[in-house]
Amino acid sequence: MATKIPATVITGFLGVGKTTLVQHLLANANGKRLALIINEFGDLGVDGDIVKGCGIEGCADDDVLELSNGCICCTVAEDFIPAMEKLLNRAEPPDHIVIETSGLALPQPLVRAFNWPEIRNRVTVDGVVTVVDSAAVQAGRFAHDEAAIDAQRQGDDMLDHETPLSELFEDQLACADMIILNKTDLLSADEASALEATLKGEARAGVQFVKAQMGAVSPATLLGLGVGAESDMAKRHAHHHHHDDDDGEHHHDHDHDDFETFQVELGAVGDVDSFMTRIKQVIIDHDILRLKGFAQVGNKPMRLVIQAVGPRVDHYFDRPLADVEKGKTMLVVIGQAGLDHAAITQALRG
Hints:
The chain has helices at 18-27, 46-52, 76-88, 107-112, 134-139, 146-155, 164-175, 189-200, 219-222, 272-286, 341-349, and strands at residues 5-12, 34-38, 64-66, 96-100, 123-133, 178-182, 208-211, 259-267, 290-296, 302-309, 312-320, 328-336. By secondary structure, it is an alpha/beta fold. Strand 2 (34-38), helix 2 and strand 3 form a beta-alpha-beta unit.
């Protein structure tokens, strides 16, 4: 039997640094033929476009497939399986497939999809890698306090026992073979160690933990885990999720209506620092989870990439502007349902 092509699933919440991790992986592939499936959330293909525009030798545009029709765990049959078949049916298939899920994706249904008849004999899940924003979790933004929620439930039987964010985070930890504590440069050594100890108590026994800054994790660490996760699903369930695929259908209680996304188009940015300050204030005022996009700064020929999670905003120039990008700022705003689109747009315009 032919050797199965390994695939690595990279999951994690919005803005944890998954795309930065993938860029570093591509830049240090050392001749390994990698193909990427990127599940973008929102109308603007920011993550895929960043990877395609990275200028890394050996990373051709057709090595990057974007799935933008919805959360990958909910569009397995319509999008994911055809994308996998497209890669597997190449005259020269890739050495390794890397799948970057959206921040909303549950990893368990995606991993189970590797048992679908169309692909199960040709590809295997080398490992599930969950990326964590160490500073955010340490600050409690995405942490789940079970005791507090249980206390609230005792007082109100109608109160949901968990928030959508905590459910996502718990599922990502439960399915992981490796947990990358990214952005540890924003924590002290003691804080990073304490966070690792806490998450070890929530993850499965034997899960590897890796501390990282700016997604700088070597391919030798990320790839080649050899787990075969699709054959080991019984141990990967989060406590509050129970999936049953005996009938071949895909079921879960993951409610995407808890989140919304919309796109904002502005003109060129006059001053980078003042615009970043404005973005930070808008994020705080409207409790935005994630903001990302591109901008032209004045008449500069280079494109400015903007990536924000919570009140932290990162920006850098990545490549020359395409003609369709000149004079524009294009942003995707992601948050929990109920965002005031008009107020946010007006605030970003200043």
